Amino acid sequence: MLGLLPAQLPWWLAGPGMGLCVVGLYGLANRRLGVSGAWLAAVVAPIEGWRGERWRVEFLAALAGGALAEGLLSSATRLTGYPVLSAALPAGVLLPLLAGGGLALGYGARWAGGCTSGHGLSGCAAGSPDSLAATATFFSVAVGVTFAGQALSGGAL
Amino acid sequence: MNRGARASTIAVGIAFGFLITGSGFGNYATIHQALLLRGWYLFAVFGSAAAVAAAGLALLRRTGTTRYGGPLRLAYAPARPHHLYGAAIFGARFGLTGTCPGGAVAMVATGGLGGLLVLFGLVGGMWLRGPAERPSATRWG
Questions:
Q1: Is the CB of residue A110 less than 8 Å away from at least one CB of chain B?
Q2: In angstroms, rounded to a whole number, what is the distance separating the alpha carbons of residues A38 and A21?
Q3: How many pairs of residues across A and B have Cβ atoms under 8 Å apart?
Q4: How far, in Å, CA of B18 to CA of A67, rounded?
Q5: Where are the domains of chain B?
Q6: What is the model's pTM?
Q7: pLDDT digits (tens, 9 = 90+) for B47-78
Q8: N or C terminus of chain A: which is more exposed, having fewer CB within 10 Å?
Q9: Is the ipTM of this structure higher than 0.85?
């Protein structure tokens, strides 16, 4: 928003920095970094009536704070978040698609026991077989679905 | 968890939130281009992140201990069918909405209100999966 940071950080800063986050959380606190586990503990656990681990709740709050800080400092601000999709699809299709997409995202992440950060980054770096299998699966399915979407929409998506 | 561990968790959370937002994980266009195998940026980010994390964890493994959390316990679990089923559903929607649980936070943080809908759905989806997972709610890495 303030334009003090570029819209996109250079990869050699962001990537290794994220890697160090994983190492740091293990090396300091002995925990696996994962965002969907944090959502589970912070929001879903109270709904279901069990206590989520406190560090996960605090981690999610901190994550949101860091994200907001970056959003404020950088020049990348957008209103819908989905310029391409909202141009190609009417709102009556787009909004249910986003909510439904989120639904499957949450369902799948809980079933698999992790998401892009927990399995994809932390678990793979630790060499855990479940994470390697889950990451290979979700990544190849995501690429396949994206290509299928583009083919079916005649290149609009 | 002791104070040192909690403070580290919060510090790492802030840094991670900052970096996923700054690297465009909240930007549909960036993710979409990467999933169409057209943009190399996200692969460079993710690849270097995984490489640094793997190297760092290998070093940690040698010392075998953590600063505030006792003896190191790295994630290790055999691959089971539920990882593949869950990941396939997750991946299908990752492809469709171009965002993940962390990316949606980054999207909202940069003003992308579409991410809010995704987050509502995310919580709902986890809740829907709840009855099947309840006995092993602590299975999470």
A1: yes
A2: 15
A3: 494
A4: 5
A5: 3-139
A6: 0.94
A7: 999 999 999 999 999 999 999 999 999 999 99
A8: N
A9: yes
